Amino acid sequence: MRKVNLKEISEKERKSPKGKFNRTSKNISVALGREPESLDLSKRHPFDLALVRIPKGKFLCPYHAHAAESELYLVVSGRGSVRDKHGITEVGPGDAFFFQPGEAHQLWNAGDEDFVYYVVADNPRSGGTTGDSCYYPDSRKWAVTTDAREEVVVRGKETDYFDGEE
């Protein structure tokens, strides 16, 4: 059995240049031994688990749809807004929701305290090939994974991840 305590996992922050997008996350799967670069599926794990925190007034990331990845969310604390093809839904502690591949979505903090949730994502990459890409409907960009860690963001030609979002 592999075991880790959340207090032992460092938070990693990702911010956009103008500050609209901001989040910190603890990648629990990696702390439990997940090796994203490995071609050995037993080392890659069949899913990823992360604890995510979005500060007041900030967005997780641009509105996007994964080509191959499914995501399950469980809200721990705070209030959030979730945008999908049906509009905007408010979520709070205890709420769970799910997006399948192709379902565009976006999350942001809609409250006065940090919006905290767990996200479980399947791991569609296998055999050394890319298994997922993201489409950003608002800015008409694609993010294409080139290997286990790198991605190229394009809109007709390569562009920056936050281009057209702020």
Annotated CATH homologous superfamily = Jelly Rolls
CATH architecture: Sandwich
Number of strands: 14
Kindly report the CATH topology. Jelly Rolls
Count of domain modules: 1
Structural class: mainly beta
What overall form do the CA principal axes indicate? globular
Calculate the terminal CA-CA distance, rounded to whole Å. Answer: 44 Å
Largest sheet: 6 strands, antiparallel
Placed side by side, the strands forming the largest sheet appear as: 1-2-3-10-5-8
The helix/strand order is EEHHEEEEEEEEEEEE
* Name of the top-level CATH class: Mainly Beta
Rg from C-alpha positions?
16 Å
Mean pLDDT, nearest integer? 88
Question: What's the helix and strand layout?
Answer:
Layout: E1 12-15, E2 22-27, H1 28-31, H2 41-44, E3 47-54, E4 65-66, E5 71-77, E6 80-84, E7 87-91, E8 96-99, E9 106-109, E10 115-122, E11 133-136, E12 141-145, E13 151-154, E14 158-159
Describe the structure.
The structure is a single chain. Residues 126-130 have low confidence and may be disordered. This protein has one domain: Jelly Rolls (Sandwich), CATH 2.60.120.10. Strand 1 (12-15) and strand 2 (22-27) form a beta hairpin. The protein is mainly beta. It has a six-stranded antiparallel beta sheet with strand order 1-2-3-10-5-8. Strands 4-11-12-13-14 form a five-stranded antiparallel beta sheet, with no helix packed on it. The protein is 5% helix and 41% strand. It has helices at 28-31, 41-44; strands at 12-15, 22-27, 47-54, 65-66, 71-77, 80-84, 87-91, 96-99, 106-109, 115-122, 133-136, 141-145, 151-154, 158-159.
